[in-house]
Amino acid sequence: MPLRDLDCGPNPRRTLSAGDRPAHYRKLGDSQSRGRICSCVWVGRVEAGRRVTTMVKIAVVGIGAIGGSVAADLSDVGRHEVHLCARTPIDELEVTHPTGTSRVCAKILCDPDEATPVDWVLLATKAHQSPGAAPWLRRLCTRKTVVAVLQNGVDHEERIAPLLESGSEVLPVVVRIPAEKLAPGKVVQRRPGSLVVADSVAGRGFKSLFEGGRTAISVVDDFVTQAWWKLLNNAAVGGICTLVLRDLTAARDPEVQAIILAMMAEIAEVARAEGAMLQDDAPEQALELVSDATPGHWSSITVDRREGRRLEWEVRNAVVGVRGRRHGIATPLNDLVTTLLRVSDAESLEPRGIQVPDREGA
Predict the structure, then answer these.
(1) What fold is seen in the domain 3-220?
(2) Which residues, in sequence order, are bridge partners of residue 181?
(3) What is the pLDDT of residue 105?
């Protein structure tokens, strides 16, 4: 493609025709890997006095509510080569969001052996599914690849770094995207989303990926505080609502609120020992956010229990007690909720020979 064909305006770009699309947009034809043919955009830049074209290669591993939402946004930005890495074959990814509906322009893979190295990996599986993503990480990552971990918890690096044989950098991400997976390849995002990363070279690079997109990216000096702030509600409100199998309105009951605030006080003490700068009234502030939640909104862990799926109690709840014991801090309420979630977890019960009813029989 002649370089002079590019628009040389302030944001030089042109949509490619079928004949000059890059090879990665040609259909693979494999029954397991469905690379879709669609138009894409190349972004021009000036380098050494000449205009060249580049595309950042991004693989999104885990095409659920979060992975689907960010993949759609990155695809709509129009300057990236996006790969979707999924367990379940899908013909396309369709995401409905506050500004419309996006049908994602991307290469869809279901076999790690067909993956090739990329610049960025966005790991958006559930935390307990991370070991299952190891084959993808082996194929996608080099030492230059940055792995952004879009998962719950405060221990992203501890969990993911051992899976990276290439020594890739891990970038923890705090996710605030209210979205739901309706079916394979179908996601609805109900409100604008935001992501938080630490102020670093990788963090600033991550923000640049989303420039011009729908997702707000915050680069902060104190990432530890942001991660523990989210855990206050994840562990306490999410844990209680999951045990009673109710949406977030359950947290408006005065007696339930008292339990939640006591749990949050334990979490905040551990968080401060870990270096988080949480204010004394952080529990009250966090609980107030629940009152502003969309009516009928379900926490993701509660939905997982309702649907009979494995629960994320290790990174949302057990981590509080684990970190607390490192500092000699007792967390009896959080330990109680952790135990109850563990024994109610479908994956924990079935190996013990306890039959888990399906949703209709529950």
Answers:
(1) Rossmann fold (3.40.50)
(2) 187
(3) 76
Tens digit of each residue's pLDDT (9 = 90 or more) over 181-234: 999 999 999 899 999 999 999 999 999 999 999 999 999 999 999 999 999 999
Distance in Å from the first CA to the final CA of the chain: 60
Active site residue 107: no
- Radius of gyration from C-alpha coordinates of the chain: 22
Phi and psi torsions of 117, nearest 5° = -60, 145
Task: Give the residue carrying structure tokens 């890739």.
Answer: 168
Token representation of residue 121: 């990996």
For tokens 């690849």, the residue is 145
Mean pLDDT of all residues belonging to the chain: 83
For residue 86, is pLDDT > 80? yes
Q: Which residues of 171-199 are buried (b: 16+ CB within 10 A; e: fewer)?
A: bbbbbebbbbbeebbebbbeeebebbbbe
Amino acid making up residue 82: V
- Active-site pick, 57, 107, 181, 230: 230
pLDDT of amino acid 296:
79
Domain spans, the chain: 3-220, 223-352
223-352 CATH, one of 3.40.50.150, 1.10.1040.10, 3.20.20.80, 3.40.190.10? 1.10.1040.10
Following DSSP, what letter does each residue of 3-36 receive, concatenated?
GGGS--SSS-EEEPPGGG--GGGS----SS--BP
The predicted model scores a pTM of 0.81
Nearest Cα neighbor of 201 from 228, 215, 219 is: 219
323: three-class secondary structure by DSSP: helix
CA distance 129 to 12: 40
3-state secondary structure 244-272: HCCCHHHHHCHHHHHHHHHHHHHHHHHHH
